[in-house]
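Give me the fold.
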Amino acid sequence: MSLPELNADSIVIGAVVEDWRAAVREAGAALTRSGSTLPAYAEEMVRMIDEHGPYVVIAPGLALAHARPGPEVIKTGLAIVTLDTPVNFGHPHNDPVSVVLGLAVASAEEHLASVADLANVFNDDRAIPALANAKTVEEVQRIMGVPS
């Protein structure tokens, strides 16, 4: 398995957001634009963080927003949103967040495989700062190592 396709519809560079909820909704909108989810998926991601806390902030500056597979997921997809100004999710060590990944998976098996593939990308400690500073869709695609 490899990372889902990252096309221009699923990448937002320099998003201006008010707070973490807006950042997650931006990732949800990108997933919807890419054809991976229905619009309601964004609110599912926000609800998961409201219920379970900032567990999605998986590394300094990086959040992996996601929700369970469900009727809002059309197909497995990945969105990347870089923020103009980092936002706090309330994580004690990894705030503020400058890059939000939105992940939608169609099954639990795909969830585990997708997270493992993402972990491989972020084993390189230069990946998060490089994404945060990316200026083009092509640069984001190159950093993530996935076909456009």
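The first strand starts at residue 11 and ends at 15.
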